[in-house]
């Protein structure tokens, strides 16, 4: 019997080679993906799993995948599908916690699809793509915390403004009226001893009025809203410079640089707290304030440095930081800024805060 020779055209070889190359690339893609891919049969037995899914869950080929924590406890009718993704055709994505072989569930985002059944086969395998959302949840919690802090600080500033106005319009005006009344009495009293006592009272009254004015300004920096952030910091520099400590301020920002009022208030408060901490606790001879924009003009760097006694830097856990530092850190976080501090005994203190000009990060 003559041998039968089958000849394949070059196009057949090219097609086969192309299919083989596609398969190789697809396999490489599955194995290199950072998202986990699990293919399960209707009994939830794994028929395919990529390395990312194994690293995330520990489940291997042939294992039966347990239900997520939500599906384990959700109420379903007898005989109904417990897996929410498999039961609800309109739901393609779901977040829950997936049991793992390592013991502790991991928060994941899951999306699903179904493979088309082969001809004559009614089994449809389900493909689940899993992604660890731990970092995303942490970032979301941080964003919520930042918004809450920002709102809290804004409420505080509103209350400070109200108290400042009450001090100015109420107590200050009342004290001024008393002062005028005492001056009127002084002009009509001839007794020298009473005049001396009135003079002493007037001096104490003027001192009290000055303290009220200082308190009012510290509660609400009206100068910040009247003349802008840079001028307000310069005014603060002049106010807090003494014979024992010089306060310096350098910036490359312009007065009309765009910065929202809420961001400007937090920056001013941070500078105010930083200078006062240096004056009260560090025995500094100079304090320098630097406010510079980044090369991309999107971020601003604030640096507060002194040559004081410094201190042993505690654990960065908030509970181990002093009130002043915690306050500055909270305000930096409220404007989406980073907070770094460098200090050691006898080496002074340097605080660096970098924040977006808008006070929010995309």
Automatic annotation (TrEMBL):
<dbReference type="Pfam" id="PF13188">
    <property type="entry name" value="PAS_8"/>
</dbReference>
<dbReference type="InterPro" id="IPR035965">
    <property type="entry name" value="PAS-like_dom_sf"/>
</dbReference>
<feature type="domain" description="Histidine kinase">
    <location>
        <begin position="162"/>
        <end position="359"/>
    </location>
</feature>
<dbReference type="InterPro" id="IPR036890">
    <property type="entry name" value="HATPase_C_sf"/>
</dbReference>
<dbReference type="GO" id="GO:0016020">
    <property type="term" value="C:membrane"/>
</dbReference>
<keyword id="KW-0547">Nucleotide-binding</keyword>
<dbReference type="InterPro" id="IPR011712">
    <property type="entry name" value="Sig_transdc_His_kin_sub3_dim/P"/>
</dbReference>
<keyword id="KW-0597">Phosphoprotein</keyword>
<feature type="domain" description="PAS">
    <location>
        <begin position="22"/>
        <end position="65"/>
    </location>
</feature>
<dbReference type="InterPro" id="IPR000014">
    <property type="entry name" value="PAS"/>
</dbReference>
<dbReference type="InterPro" id="IPR003594">
    <property type="entry name" value="HATPase_dom"/>
</dbReference>
<dbReference type="InterPro" id="IPR005467">
    <property type="entry name" value="His_kinase_dom"/>
</dbReference>
<protein>
    <recommendedName>
        <fullName>histidine kinase</fullName>
        <ecNumber>2.7.13.3</ecNumber>
    </recommendedName>
</protein>
<keyword id="KW-0418">Kinase</keyword>
<feature type="coiled-coil region">
    <location>
        <begin position="191"/>
        <end position="218"/>
    </location>
</feature>
<keyword id="KW-0808">Transferase</keyword>
<dbReference type="GO" id="GO:0046983">
    <property type="term" value="F:protein dimerization activity"/>
</dbReference>
<keyword id="KW-0175">Coiled coil</keyword>
<dbReference type="Pfam" id="PF02518">
    <property type="entry name" value="HATPase_c"/>
</dbReference>
<keyword id="KW-0067">ATP-binding</keyword>
<dbReference type="GO" id="GO:0000155">
    <property type="term" value="F:phosphorelay sensor kinase activity"/>
</dbReference>
<dbReference type="GO" id="GO:0005524">
    <property type="term" value="F:ATP binding"/>
</dbReference>
<keyword id="KW-0902">Two-component regulatory system</keyword>
<dbReference type="Pfam" id="PF07730">
    <property type="entry name" value="HisKA_3"/>
</dbReference>
<dbReference type="InterPro" id="IPR050482">
    <property type="entry name" value="Sensor_HK_TwoCompSys"/>
</dbReference>
